[in-house]
Amino acid sequence: IVLPTKDEPRWAQDEQRFKDALKDSKYSTEILFSQGSSAKEKENVETLISKGIKVLIIAPHDGAAAGAAVEAAKKEGITVIAYDRLINETDAIDYYVTFDSIAVGEAQAQYLVDAYSGKKNVPLYLYAGGAFDNNAFLFFEGAWNVLQPKIADGTFVIANSSEAEALKDKAQLTRDELGKIINQVTTNWDPNEAKNKAQTHLTAVGKDLKGDVAILAPNDGTARAIADVFATDGDVTSYVVTGQDAEKASVQYILDGKQSMTVFKDVRTLVKDAMDMAVKVLNGETPETTGTYNNGKIDVKAKQTDVIVVNKENVKKELIDSGYYEASDFEGIE
Ligand code: BGC
């Protein structure tokens, strides 16, 4: 199992859930982290190949650069399962287990739309994930599906992206067009970069683009960083900010009213799907899939899982009562 980085709580969650799932397993497994480096990722895969693995479960750091690593695995007859992030432009991938990433972006956008229904000219700040990650495209595509009509009808005005402004009349964007916006408002999945960008954006705009604002933040780590910047601007009266991953720190932010929502992706399900797939492969059976994803070269058989929108109202039900976290992990939850 190869994961992109230990430094983001999302992937530390996956590590923990893999460990939980593997506790009583008869299979030997190893989890390696690539620390945001495609070179390290390739090295990790080579290490595992030399240990004689039969199945590789990999969430790539960079979805295009990872092609070389999985091609090396494929050459040795190893079954490759892409985990959460697709690997692009290669035929050396057998399966893909993923959340519905388009639905993640749609849910984030819908939250902003619902929060400002009936309003006009609400400043909209757009932020995106890292363009090296195929998911950043899917999240933004989903968000655009829902936001674009609401930009067109005057509910929102784009505050921080000339590229989005130039494309605002197009309901469907090509990958290149998405890339233009993403490259302009990317956080590179880095909270520091998110913070710096938010500061730059707020410095650049006048009071007409402050007041009550909507912020599309791609995940929890970047959402907290961006929210902290908006919270300290005297001309921002209120903000609604999205997130995803249900990171513990963001659950606390939601309880404290500092982050509006998160998209909960139950990592237990993804881990179970990946492990079930691997075991089937090891037993010579064919894993069940629910559809396909085109990676630019082939249609990859995929198993997809739904996501859940969490805010202050349902946080206890979805995250505590479901056994995902303990109430004692947080302040202000009964
Ligand atoms: C994952 C998100 C995560 C992001 C940054 C994406 O590929 O789907 O859950 O927040 O990467 O690590």
Which terms would index this structure?
alpha/beta; four-stranded parallel sheet; 12 helices; 13 strands; 334 residues; binds beta-D-glucopyranose
Whole-Å distance between the termini?
37 Å
Helix content: 40-55%
Q: Which structural class fits the helix and strand makeup? A: alpha/beta
Q: Uncertain runs with pLDDT below 50, 5 residues or more? A: none
Total beta strands: 13
Give the radius of gyration.
Answer: 20 Å
Strand content bin: 15-25%
How would you sum up the major sheet?
5 strands, mixed
Q: Helix and strand string, N-terminal first? A: EHEHEHEEHEHEHHHEHEHEHEEEH
| Shape by Cα distribution | globular
- Please give the count of helices: 12
Average pLDDT confidence is 97
What ligand species are in this complex? beta-D-glucopyranose
Q: How are the strands of the largest sheet arranged? A: 3-4-5-12-11
